[in-house]
């Protein structure tokens, strides 16, 4: 009887040890692939407690979480012949644990190598502007290139993103100058547009003021008030332009009358001829008659007539002194008597 009890106890211990060696615990984020005598079993073991045959079965646990794999920076030449260094990051997960274990030796290393070659190929097919500003199509193209071999390995590509684009220092300076020139161009366009709008507004204001001359006077007074509001010693004296035109026409008229008075007299020999004053526009006009008078000559004051008469008399007196026959000296001075000292001695 005692022998039977001992045998039962031994068998129970052996069964307990065997069950302990055959028990496996699989985490929630893992799946178990069972190899029985070297052959893979089609059904993967779910998370939790699972039993395998000791010595006969061998379990490989596969992580099915999303793996974040950085891609080392790859140097290449873009399609527009610019040397750049680009790095990326790949997010993937194992969809079929059996194929990920059986089809490829190390699926993580395989995905890293495929990502590097695909990234270098994307660099050669893209322009620099696309790498800097239009990365979304490049990300999609890179994910498509990685997805082609990954499907056969039981791996699903979640997403792929380009991280950084390193440019040479010379290219950075060139791009900085280009951006500065672009900003300068925009500022000049804005300034020119402002000048155009201001000129249009000023033209409209000038048309309104031309219809009402009083508005121009009010604007002049307002400008004087604005200048005088500042504490300075500036004195502003407005001078109408019409008065300058009137004085110009009056001077031309006086010159023409003086030339008419001195022209009939025969000029003596040696007398330099004075240039004739230009005739006024009112006198040269064929439409004007001797009895008609222009508005400027009708309103001319007597003071100007008196000044013209005095100017003509002074010119005639100077001519008589220069051409006097009693003078031996060409400058009109009397000859000096011998023995007498000069007047200035």
UniProtKB/TrEMBL annotation:
Q: Where is this region: Disordered?
A: 262-345
Pfam families, per the entry: Band_7
What is the superkingdom listed in this entry's lineage? Bacteria
Q: Where is the composition biased (Pro residues)?
A: 335-345
Bias (Low complexity) occurs at: 262-301
* Residue ranges of domain Band in the record: 21-179
Q: Which CDD domains match?
A: SPFH_eoslipins_u1
Q: Which InterPro entries match?
A: Band-7_stomatin-like, Band_7, Band_7/SPFH_dom_sf, Stomatin_HflK_fam
Q: Which Gene3D superfamilies match?
A: 6.10.250.2090, Band 7 domain (3.30.479.30)
The membrane-spanning stretches of this chain are none
Q: Which SMART domains does the UniProt entry name for this protein? A: PHB (SM00244)
Protein family: Belongs to the band 7/mec-2 family.
* Name of the protein: Band 7 domain-containing protein
Organism field: Yinghuangia aomiensis
Q: What is the lineage of its organism?
A: Bacteria, Bacillati, Actinomycetota, Actinomycetes, Kitasatosporales
């Amino acid at each position: 009887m005692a022998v039977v009890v001992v045998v039962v106890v031994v068998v129970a211990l052996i069964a307990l040890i065997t069950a302990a060696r055959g028990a496996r615990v699989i985490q929630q984020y893992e799946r178990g692939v069972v190899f029985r005598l070297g052959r893979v079993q089609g059904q993967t073991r779910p998370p939790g407690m699972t039993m395998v045959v000791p010595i006969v079965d061998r379990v490989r646990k596969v992580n099915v979480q999303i793996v974040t794999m950085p891609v080392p920076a790859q140097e290449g030449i873009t399609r527009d012949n610019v040397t750049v260094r680009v790095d990326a990051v790949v997010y993937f997960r194992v969809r079929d644990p059996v194929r990920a274990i059986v089809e490829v030796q190390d699926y993580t290393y395989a995905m890293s190598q495929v990502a590097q070659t695909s990234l270098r190929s994307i660099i050669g097919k893209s322009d620099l502007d696309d790498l800097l500003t239009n990365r979304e199509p490049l990300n999609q193209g890179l994910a498509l290139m990685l997805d082609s071999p990954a499907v056969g390995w039981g791996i699903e590509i979640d997403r792929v993103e380009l991280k950084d684009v390193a440019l040479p220092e010379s290219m950075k300076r060139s791009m900085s100058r280009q951006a500065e020139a672009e900003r300068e161009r925009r500022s000049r366009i804005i300034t020119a547009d402002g000048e155009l709008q201001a000129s249009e507004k000023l033209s409209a204001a000038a048309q309104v003021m031309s219809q009402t001359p009083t508005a121009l006077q009010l604007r002049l007074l307002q400008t004087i008030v604005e200048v005088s509001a500042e504490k300075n010693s500036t004195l502003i004296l407005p001078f109408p332009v019409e008065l300058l035109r009137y004085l110009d026409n009056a001077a031309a008229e006086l010159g023409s009358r003086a030339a008419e008075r001195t022209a009939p007299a025969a000029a003596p020999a040696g007398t330099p001829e004075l240039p004739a004053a230009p005739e006024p526009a009112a006198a040269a006009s064929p439409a004007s008659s001797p009895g008609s008078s222009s508005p400027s000559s009708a309103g001319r004051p007597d003071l100007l007539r008196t000044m013209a008469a005095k100017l003509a008399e002074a010119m005639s007196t100077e001519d008589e002194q220069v051409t006097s026959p009693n003078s031996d000296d060409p400058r009109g001075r009397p000859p000096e008597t011998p023995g007498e000292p000069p007047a200035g001695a």
